Amino acid sequence: MKSYSQVRAMLAISRASLRAIFRSPSAVVFGFAFPFIFILVFAFMGNNGGFTTYKIAVDNKADTTNELFKALQNTNGISIKKYNDTSMLEKDLQSGKLAGIINIQKNLKGTPPYIFTLKSTTASNDKWPQFVTLVESVINKISNKIYPGRLAYADFDFDFPRDIKVIRKYKTIDFILPGQLGFSLLASGVFGIAFMFFSLRTTLVLKRFFATPISRTFIILGEMFSRVVFQMLTAIVIILVGYYFFDFTLIHGFETFMELLVLSFIGLVVFMGMGFVISGIATNDNTIPPLANIVTMPQFLICGTFFPIDVFPKWLQWLAQALPLTHLNNALRDVAFNGNNLWDERWEIAILLLWGAVVYSAAVKVFKWE
User: Fold this and answer.
1) Which of 119, 258, 280, 346 is a Cys-bridge partner for 366, taking CB atoms 3.0 to 4.6 Å apart?
2) Which top CATH class is 54-165?
3) CA dihedral 298, 301, 302, 308 (to 10 degrees)
């Protein structure tokens, strides 16, 4: 007599569950429709990734005691950002978050006119030309105030071939697609698992499973496997559509594509744990949406899904940095555009795994079979 196969039974559960997922309108909407709608909307809004102010960094050797620097600090539309980490400075330059790096120095005589220089990248082609014009107007204003009818207070020393580093252009899709991929993974993991396991419990399907020789562990693995297969298919479609139709950057091609799938898998497993917790504490199916929204909505709004988190107040940025979707989005963007490998993103992955340990510990405590 052939022995009972737990794996075969698990795969049978997965196949049946996968068919049910594809027949579920909500699964298709959250998995495919919503992410694509947002990708389409944001992809046609422009190519500046949502960055509207002239953010600049100051060279460490710059003279910041002069009137020009003080005037730039007080000019509306200019935000001077200090960097202690040169790698972060380079990253922001290449992604187009900065208009450039400015340097103000006295001339060889030690007196005005000062020499003002700007170094930037082609990623900021939509910023530094306007910034140059703005700086020139500030210089003219100071010159007319301090030296009316005399030499300019500063000379703008700027040369495109010398001062602009030509790099890949950071497009809107390079920011928005990873956020929408994270959106899809979070929605599917939390809502999908919460509704599915609560329904299996209340419709007594789990009770029927108990009448078979399959173990409880393989019941959960079978249901989880179906959700993973569905959502990983969704991730593949989102990435490939972005790449072939919207010029989404996969810097190392297939290697980057596979690394994005690994990150998607890690994020999905973490978010599924949140769904298990909700299914365990929900008292009826009407309580699942509010509980799921408490978990998902803050992450949708402040974790870099639609906008960079640095547009928020500092206290809100701290909250965003504590949530797992922020770290998934950061890792996805760093791998896709900057060419980081998974080891480079070990800190982001470690935080996701820590969240996974916490949520699954909670899921074990609250999970109910009946």
Assistant:
1) 280
2) alpha beta
3) 170
